[in-house]
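quick q for whoever's on today - can somebody do inverse folding on this one?? i tried earlier but teh output was garbage lol. tokens:
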């Protein structure tokens, strides 16, 4: 093999940074769970407290993250959680490589809606999409209504990664995006054609068991 061919093969195998290769990552979850705040914390390292202004439509931020020797460009899309924007955001699921699905640990309804979100993801996203469940606002210990174990149990049930985060203090925010980047690199190196989380299989089973799901 000549050295040029060798180089191109090692680039393919080890995923050396290619600025044209972006991994589309989408933040989803009910309105007010902290999607915009999580992205601002990750991108700018700050939290803007105060009045809540709901996202209208959808927008993205590019961020290059380094995992070991490998650089990964994440194109992170912040979606509007409000029901009236749902049809707009569905269109963006199709070519997503990763989805960060958020609930608010102080809001039972945002946690209860996670199953319905996963059903939507099943319907609109690709079967090998990386999914991460995030219990946000972990700094609000006094207002907590969803135990950490409940989040862990739900994530285990659906075979997705789980973490609690705080967009306010920054806890686990970088780690969440790093984990997504690692997972995306790992997949392209180890099993390029094999989805790891078979979310479609799981949601199929759930549908048969419960006849669910829709948003309330
Ligand atoms: P939509 O744009 O409507 O989908 O909402 P969103 O999910 O983007 O929520 P947003 O980031 O706008 O946050 C909603 C409210 O929660 C704001 O008042 C934030 O300041 C607050 N908030 C977000 N994350 C945290 C957090 O980790 N801790 C605390 N204490 N407050 C947070």
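ok took a stab at it. sequence:
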């Amino acid at each position: 093999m000549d050295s040029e061919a060798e180089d191109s093969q090692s680039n393919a195998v080890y995923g050396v940074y290619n600025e044209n290769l972006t991994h589309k990552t989408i933040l989803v979850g009910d309105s007010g769970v902290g999607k915009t705040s999580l992205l601002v914390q990750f991108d700018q390292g700050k939290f803007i407290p105060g009045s809540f202004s709901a996202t209208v439509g959808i927008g993205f931020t590019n961020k290059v993250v380094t995992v070991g020797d490998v650089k990964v460009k994440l194109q992170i899309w912040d979606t509007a959680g409000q029901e009236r924007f749902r049809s707009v955001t569905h269109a963006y699921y199709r070519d997503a490589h990763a989805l960060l699905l958020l609930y608010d640990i102080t809001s039972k309804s945002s946690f209860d809606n996670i199953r319905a979100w996963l059903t939507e993801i099943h319907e609109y996203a690709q079967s090998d999409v990386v999914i991460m469940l995030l219990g946000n606002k972990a700094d609000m210990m006094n207002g907590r209504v969803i135990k950490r174990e409940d989040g862990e149990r739900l994530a285990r049930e659906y075979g997705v990664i789980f973490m609690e985060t705080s967009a306010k203090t920054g806890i686990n925010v970088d780690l969440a995006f790093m984990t997504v980047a690692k997972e995306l690199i790992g997949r392209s190196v180890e099993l390029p054609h094999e989805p790891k989380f078979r979310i479609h299989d799981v949601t199929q089973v759930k549908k048969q068991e419960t006849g669910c799901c829709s948003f309330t």
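fwiw The chain has one domain: 19-214. also Strands lie at 22-29, 58-67, 70-79, 98-104, 130-136, 161-164. so keep that in mind when u check it
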